[in-house]
Amino acid sequence: MTTSSQTSASKYTLFVSALLVLCGLPLLVGGGWLAAAGGSWYYLLAGIGMLISAFLLARQSRAGVWMYGLVVLGTVVWSAWESGLDYWRWVPRLDVVMVLALLVALTMPRLKQPFSKTLSYTYAGASVAIFVVAFALAFVPYGFNQYDAVPATAKTSFSTYTGQLDKADQPASGDWPAYGRDNAATRYSPLTQINTDNVSGLTRAWEFRTGEMDVKSWGAETTPIKVNDRLYLCSGLNNMFALDSKTGKQIWKYDAGLDQKDIPYTAACRGVAYYETPASAMAEGQTTCKARIVEGTLDGRIIEVDADTGKPCEDFGDHGQVSIKEHMGETPDGYVAITGVPNIVQGVIITGHQVIDGQARYEPSGVIKAYDAVTGELKWAWDMVRPDIDTIPPEGETYTRGTPNMWTTGTSDNELGLVYLPMGNSTADYYSSMRRKEEHEYSSSLVAIDVNTGKPVWHFQTVHADVWDYDLGSQVTLLDFPVENGTVPALMLPSKQGDLYVLDRRTGKPLTGVTEKPVAQGGVEPEERSATQPVSEYHALRKPPLTAQDMWGITPFDQLACRIQFQEAAYDGMYTPPTVNQRWIQYPSYNGGSDWGSVAIDPERGVMIANYNDMPMYNKLVPRDIVDKEGWLTRAE
Hints:
The chain has about 625 residues and is of the alpha+beta class. It is built from nine helices and 28 strands. The strands form nine sheets. It has a four-stranded antiparallel beta sheet with strand order 1-2-3-4, with no helix packed on it.
């Protein structure tokens, strides 16, 4: 005679069996797929083990518990072998398995030949304890290593001289007058009032809102500058503000009148520049703007306003603004935008711009332009394919279309009269056969331009024939670098590949080793790929190449799917050539590595702080016939 308790036990055991089937089947199918693709056999074996355990438990056999115990033991051994002591690698390998272990443990006293309740609850309690410990460990910081003590002072100061033409050359200790704090772009403040002893007691002093919450694709990317007792900043719609630095009270606002149709990817403005009009110009009555706030806009304008009032500097260009789109030809809405901060060197404003990616081969030009900082007069233009064009193209012509652009922020050197421009790569980003030789020469290079002539003095390339969008996004930092006989005026160049290059900023010659290393070949344009790529011997931030063990998910199921994708994709290290017949993995991704956040350097202690974006990409080139069939259109179309 069957009792109600036996019926209940039977139902619970069948419930657990059903869960094991639901979990075992995808592991069996997906695991077989992965094994056939040359990947780990664990998932297949675990799926088989779960299904056998489910069958035995459905028959209320003790062997079902033992079989699942083997699954748990095998999972732990496999996890230890693949993951070592890396906590986050254990999570997807054990989470579902241990949940099921808890449920299986509770079947033990319900079987035909039951285990004792004490043993059952012991195993169940152990499973719960593992979960509690695992949850607590999730809040423990990982990946921190203290390799050496931070020096109190460096043996040699890394501070460098960039001139004394403006406030950003030698900032007051309490000021931040440029995007990177100073013209050296160190992003280092010498202030000491906030320290490790009192930082925990900081409270919010004030907050300021731009009032732009209804803007599509809005981004808060601005770095305010501080001059004396004022903060100057720009919003996502290029509106400019002056605030009282002590109270946060708005002093003035300038409305840039940006139309949202001109927003490219994100409504973002990374900062503004500060410029004081030379005393000679003021004495001659050329202007009424003693100090100017300079901004580049998402619709391709340079705007100058009076730092004191926020009113346009009427003598600059056309009532306070100039358009960089002139002589570019067709520029659809959102295609040409300035998101970086304009540079000002020896009274000349230098600006690049971003050109929206992935639309067409011959998008608007990446031409670099320079304007007189007081009058807005076009001083020069650098078109890398047409160096004969000094300012504007001949009538009826445009600047060369489809050339690499400088979308980020350059670095100003008043002492040497140079501006250092991190260049992008040509359109289209992932296909190079249609590029000109001049584009190959300057693509993904740091270019030093003489601000008085507009001509390149030197350039240093970080990728040959770039088809990975490994353009240079980081503003370089200027420093004096120690060599055998003293120090050399140098710069630190971070790349999206994670390399850190140290160059003599007078000549562009490396001060530390740079090696050309062989890289993977093949892909959709095998004849276009460079046999080698430059690698810095000074330091690299990048992580080791990806392996199947690195694939992650929150559960074993999505981790399994990720491992299948990895196994079937083309991947042969950092410079895996783009493919059209299968997916290919790009790591680091086009976000870096180091991107527009760049690095910070404490020149007195000789310490560099470097952010690193760690995100692979899973790519595939799409043939034109499929694009046409799918009806995919460019933004302009």
